[in-house]
Write a structure and sequence with these properties.
The protein is mainly alpha-helical. It contains six helices and no strands. Helix 3 runs antiparallel to helix 5 and helix 4 packs parallel to helix 5.
């Protein structure tokens, strides 16, 4: 009696990255964590709160911001810049394209054709 082939149970790796790169830096392997050290908002906010005033101003100048004297405003600006940076590395959510319009709505929309 011959052994049964296990071909149906085998899986082949395609080596393809499932996430599409959004920037050229991502094509070359940058995950976005090199600039801020993280892409997690809570981790970055904790980091900012732990910095003293001079370290905070030094961090702001490294990020390309003018290091102002008001701590609260400076942290707000740094958080805003961080959110912009994270937005570059996270893909936009997929739009659900389920056509759930009612028959009446489709008739109204088809009148303009």
């Amino acid at each position: 009696m011959a052994k049964k082939s296990k071909i149906n149970s085998l899986h082949q790796a395609h080596g393809k990255v499932e996430k599409r790169p959004l920037t050229l830096d991502q094509v070359w392997g940058d995950s976005g964590t090199s600039r801020y050290g993280t892409l997690d908002k809570e981790v970055y906010e904790k980091y900012l709160e732990d910095l003293n005033k001079s370290d905070l101003q030094n961090h702001a100048s490294k990020m390309g911001l003018v290091p102002i004297d008001d701590r609260k405003t400076l942290i707000g600006r740094l958080k805003k810049e961080f959110q912009k940076h994270v937005a570059m590395y996270k893909p936009t959510p997929e739009v659900n394209r389920n056509n759930t319009t009612s028959k009446t709505a489709r008739q109204i929309l088809s009148e303009g054709r």
